[in-house]
């Protein structure tokens, strides 16, 4: 899909559904915080939430004292929802996460966080761009959290095909310069009641 039609797809998803009916809506952030809490973040450490949609995770991170938050989104509709809630308390980037231009001006981050975004990148070249962009922003000693559909799960999300993961595939993509610190499968239940197993994992980039 072209960038414009991807953006349209997601804009429609956010326009056509209330926040709590989205197939990825969550109000229990404990699986994420199990991993975030292991990063020992200082209040002014930069954190980037890629493809964060209308998620309330940035609100939770602000409540937990983090102040250097960046969210990136391809959907202007989703980004506007978050802007309406949080205004100038956080930083925003509109655009495709596969384009390095989207992240221009974003500092190196202590934590790169991705829930249910990377799994939409089916093509090898998309995955290559994604990991290039990630490695440019994640400093030595910094952290990456992924939460994508697990190998045992569904092969579509929001009507789009997904590339499913386990912690070994994450590791292969990141390379040996990243160390796996923790991983677990979390069964998420959609508002429709359907079960979606996600594979959560925390990696740290080696210091040298
Ligand atoms: C399934 S939703 C997950 C949203 C959020 N991460 C969460 O956990 O609630 C996928 C999100 O990724 C965004 N997205 C999809 N492709 C993207 C891309 N190429 N660049 C940036 N964001 C993208 C969509 O707009 C959507 O908000």
Beta fraction: 25-35%
Q: Give the distance, in angstroms, between the N- and C-terminal Cα atoms.
A: 38 Å
Q: What would CATH call the homologous superfamily?
A: Vaccinia Virus protein VP39
Structural class: alpha/beta
Average of the residue pLDDT scores = 97
Number of strands: 9
Ions, cofactors and other bound molecules: S-adenosylmethionine
How do the helices and strands follow one another from N- to C-terminus?
HHEHEHEEHEEEHEE
Give helix % range.
25-40%
Q: What is the number of helices?
A: 6
Shape: globular
CATH class: Alpha Beta
The strand line-up of the biggest sheet is 3-2-1-4-5-9-8
Using the CA coordinates, give the radius of gyration.
16 Å
CATH topology: Rossmann fold
Report the sheet with the most strands, covering strand number, pairing sense and barrel closure.
7 strands, mixed
By CATH, the architecture is named: 3-Layer(aba) Sandwich
Question: Which helices and strands occur, and which strands form pairs?
Answer:
Layout: H1 3-15, H2 30-36, E1 47-50, H3 57-63, E2 69-73, H4 76-86, E3 91-94, E4 109-115, H5 124-137, E5 138-149, E6 156-157, E7 160-161, H6 167-174, E8 178-189, E9 195-205
Bound molecules: S-adenosylmethionine.
Give an overview in words.
With 208 residues, the chain is an alpha/beta fold. It contains six helices and nine strands; from the N terminus they run ααβαβαββαβββαββ. The longest helix has 14 residues, at 124-137. The model has no long low-confidence stretch (mean pLDDT 97). It binds S-adenosylmethionine (SAM). S-adenosylmethionine binds next to helix 1 and strand 2.
């Amino acid at each position: 899909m072209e960038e414009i039609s991807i953006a349209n797809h997601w804009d429609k998803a956010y326009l056509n559904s209330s926040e709590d009916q989205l197939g990825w809506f969550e109000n229990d952030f404990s699986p994420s915080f199990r991993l975030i809490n292991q990063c020992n973040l200082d209040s002014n450490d930069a954190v980037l939430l890629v493809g964060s949609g209308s998620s309330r995770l940035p609100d939770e991170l602000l409540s937990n004292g983090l102040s250097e938050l960046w969210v990136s989104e391809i959907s202007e509709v989703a980004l506007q929802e978050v802007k309406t809630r949080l205004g100038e308390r956080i930083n925003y980037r509109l655009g495709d996460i596969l384009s390095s231009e989207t992240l221009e001006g974003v500092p190196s981050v202590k934590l790169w966080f991705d829930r249910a975004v990377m799994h939409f990148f089916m093509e090898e070249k998309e995955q290559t761009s994604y990991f290039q962009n990630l490695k440019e922003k994640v400093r030595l000693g910094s952290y990456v959290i992924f939460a994508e559909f697990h190998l045992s799960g569904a092969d579509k999300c929001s009507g789009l095909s997904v590339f499913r993961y386990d912690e070994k595939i994450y590791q292969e993509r990141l390379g040996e310069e990243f160390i796996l610190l923790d991983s677990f499968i979390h069964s998420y239940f959609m508002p429709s009641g359907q079960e979606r197993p996600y594979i959560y994992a925390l990696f740290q980039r080696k210091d040298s």
